[in-house]
Amino acid sequence: MKQELKYLVLHCTATPEGRDVSAAEIRRWHTSPVSAGGRGWKQVGYTDLVHLNGSVERLVANNEDAWVDPWEITNGAKGYNSISRHIVYAGGVAADGKTPKDTRTAAQKAALEKYVKDFHTAHPKVKIIGHNQVAAKACPSFDVSAWLREIGINQ
């Protein structure tokens, strides 16, 4: 049963600064069996991935409407998946691989801004949040509310 879209959740891959991530790698992390080092999920955690160069790659098909159909559900934020879409940028931790850090490149910032503005225009009632606003995590390693104000989105 489809549900009304209520959130766009922003994420980071929690990979070191400057390291790009492939769709295949994310699929492996999320859908491989736990015994093989994955999470054992049926679906990846994100609808779209923003690469270091600013290109946006679709990971899970969706019809772009204001509903989350069962085939569109991703596993980005426990308890929110059936009412959310999730976008992730490659990065989010310092070179040490542990310390949360806003590592978005200029190209990623521009791509994420365009994506979020386009999304907000299409779905003005949907709340845009960081993963850390619904889970005890640093992800996406920047203050989404402050950033939204900077780019002119007041919600």
Give short descriptive properties of this protein.
five-stranded mixed β-sheet, Amidase/PGRP_sf, 21% helix, Lysozyme-like, Amidase_domain, Lysozyme, two-stranded antiparallel ribbon
The gist of it:
The chain has 155 residues and is of the alpha/beta class.
Task: Tell me about this structure.
There is one protein chain. The protein is an alpha/beta fold and 155 residues long. It has three helices and nine strands, in the order E-E-E-H-E-E-E-E-E-H-E-H. It has helices at 23-31, 106-122, 144-150, and strands at residues 3-4, 7-12, 15-16, 48-50, 56-58, 67-68, 84-89, 92-93, 127-130. A five-stranded mixed β-sheet has the order 5-4-7-2-9, covered by helices on one side. Strands 1-6 form a two-stranded antiparallel ribbon. The two termini are 28 Å apart. It comes from Xylanibacter rodentium. This is Lysozyme. It holds the Pfam family Amidase_2.
What characteristic shape results from the CA principal axes?
globular
Q: How many distinct folded domains?
A: 1
How far apart the termini lie comes to: 28 Å
In this structure, how is the largest beta sheet organized?
5 strands, mixed
Strand-residue fraction?
15-25%
| SS content category | alpha/beta
Examine the coordinates and then state which fold CATH places here, giving the name of the CATH topology. Lysozyme-like
How many helices? The count is 3
Average pLDDT value? Answer: 95
Order of helices and strands: EEEHEEEEEHEH
CATH class: Alpha Beta
What's the CATH architecture?
Answer: 3-Layer(aba) Sandwich
Work out the radius of gyration.
15 Å
Spatial arrangement of strands, main beta sheet: 5-4-7-2-9
Low-confidence stretches: none
According to CATH, the homologous superfamily is: Peptidoglycan recognition protein-like
Estimate percent helicity: 10-25%
